[in-house]
Amino acid sequence: MNQTSVNDFVLLGLTDLVDIQLSLFAIFLMFYMVTVSGNLSIMVITQIDRSLHTPMYFFLWNLSFIDLCFSSVAVPKMLHDFLVLKKTISFGGCISQIQFFHSLGSAEVMLLTMMSFDRYVAIGMPLRYLQIMSSKVCMTLALFSWVAGFFHALIHTILTAKLPFCGPNVVNHFFCDVKPVLKLACTDTTLNLNLLIRITGTLATTSFVLTFLSYVCISRFLLRIKTALGRKNALSTCSAHLTVVFLLYGTAIFTYLRTSSEHALDQDRVIAVLFTVVTPALNPVIYTLRNKDMMKAFMKVRRRL
Questions:
Q1: How many whole angstroms separate alpha carbon 145 and alpha carbon 62?
Q2: Could you tell me if 65 and 39 are in contact, meaning their C-beta atoms sit under 8 angstroms apart?
Q3: Smallest Cα–Cα separation from 141: which of 104, 114, 122, 107?
Q4: How do residues 256-295 score in pLDDT, each as one tens digit?
Q5: CA 45, CA 300: separation in Å to the nearest integer?
Q6: How many domains is the chain partitioned into structurally?
Q7: In what order do the strands lie in the sheet with 88-90?
Q8: Minimal CA–CA distance to 195: which of 210, 179, 181, 216?
Q9: Residue 3 lies in a domain
Q10: Is 252 exposed, middle or buried (0-12, 13-18, 19+ CB in 10 A)?
Q11: Is residue 252 in some structural domain?
């Protein structure tokens, strides 16, 4: 039975140095504005430019939507907390943050795996590409990412919500994540931590292995291309995706596959800035600057305005 007596939590925030709060507010507000404007731009451009109505840009639309929502789970609250003395969040709000954060994060990991498979088909089987990556297949792969991500997060959310919290109520983070919230439970949380490591670890590892295998196959196809220009053009369609994959997997694996000591949690706060603030802002920049079709579509839309 849930014996929770805590009605709200106090977020420790990113830093307790008052003198730099306003500076951090301005910096992170700028990143968040880039995240919102950049990802919304990709979503709009890929919809209105018919030349971008392809499987690759369908997945990119989903990735942009996830990044926009993913960042919005934590960043607006963090920006608000920079301007107030007491950084509180209700128990329900905290649990909701855990659900949405892990749901969207898991969906993004799996979507990137689907995108690597899309690149494998595009480079390895170009003549059958549109036949294999049909609208139905793309919708199924994207829907699987969303649904699997939701239920993966729901396991951790329910198990965390059922724990008794009787104080203290200070979360060592700038948003509610599973590990820092588990530290506040008035009971043994070994099961929760083991499930977090095993389930999240299995999901991340499986997605990474499938992505890696896709690129092993892609590299074999690239070696068969005789001209340097042909290899360069083929590789250019993968470079943006590879960059995003390294950014996401590097931070996620470092955060969720380690112990939950206080020192580790302090490191997690800094690392979390990368995948909640920096990466969602960089993704649209990476996909735009390293993609000629997106640049052409962007300039075409800009001329219309």
A1: 10
A2: yes
A3: 114
A4: 555 555 555 566 777 788 888 988 888 888 877 667 777 7
A5: 9
A6: 1
A7: 88-90, 8-11, 170-171
A8: 179
A9: no
A10: buried
A11: yes
